[in-house]
Amino acid sequence: MTLAGKVALVAGGTRGGGRGIAVELGAAGATVYVTGRSSTGGGRSDLDRPETIEETAERVTAAGGLGIPVRTDHSSPEEVRALVERIAADQDGQLDVLVNSVWGGDPLTDWEHPLWEQDLDTGLRLLRQAVETHVITSRFALPLMVARKSGLVVEVTDGNTARYRGSFFYDLAKSTVIRLAVAQAAELRPHGVAAVAVTPGFLRSEAMLDHFGVTEHTWRDAAAQDPHFAHSETPAYLGRAVAALAADPHVMTKTGRALATWGLYEEYGFTDADGTQPDFAAHWANSLEATHGPLGDPL
In angstroms, what is the C-alpha Rg of the chain? Predict the structure, then answer.
């Protein structure tokens, strides 16, 4: 698997799944533009977390690619337009992979109340942040791919089935992102560009490690608090899934689909950072289906 000579944009690459994808695209040899609002020179986003786009870019380069950090607020069409114009100028119009991984909605998600008891402004803000940012980014980035008649768009989501995700605005955001992949696939297919949605399983992100009070070295200790965490996966696993898709010369056969790490590892053979192959769908069937019902039919 090689992406040498390829150019990628990972929107929302500061941390979590976006960082994992950026680094693994770099490990496959790609030049990766890493964007987000948390920057060493530009301050933190409203999440107020320590990770920065510069750190991610450094990891991309250390992995074997070339990481280029560009501080960008993806809710701003002007900033996204300027970002894409820079990529076009730097790379002679080349963009092979677009990853829409902007999220930041965790503090905006209300897991306790039904729609009619939720704060409307907060819920609508979540949708703007988690959906509109993807639309804005694709609007300006897709012309580069269409002009070259090749490329891959990846919409990062949570879950690839119609099962309700437990909170109205969260569910609406994540399921809408899948629909964004379907709609882009329909319009891009005549131009030879693929679009898919990809979900991890139980993602062991920096924020999740902090939530359990563990590190990546001690993460197994968190299983005492939540036994399902023993079946979690690192952002690298998601990254390797995306890198495998980006390197697949037949990726057009998957365009318009909602895919998952637990299906893609079987096809492409990649492993997580520790050499394992987590399969959250299998864990759900074995341990959660009796209580919570089946994971659901693919969207």
Answer: 18
The residue ranges of the chain whose pLDDT is under 50 are none
Look at residue 153 and give its three-state secondary structure: strand
3-state SS, residue 213: coil
Q: Is the pTM of this model over 0.85?
A: yes
CB 79 within 8 A of CB 141: no
Alpha helices (H) in the chain, listed in sequence order:
16-27, 53-63, 77-90, 120-127, 133-148, 168-188, 206-212, 235-247, 261-268, 280-283, 289-292
Strand order in the sheet with 66-71: 66-71, 31-36, 7-11, 97-100, 151-156, 193-199, 258-260
Using one digit for the tens of pLDDT, what is the confidence trace for 78-87? 999 999 999 9
Give 225's contacts (C-beta < 8 A, 6+ positions apart): 212
Q: How far apart are CA 158 and CA 170, in angstroms?
A: 9
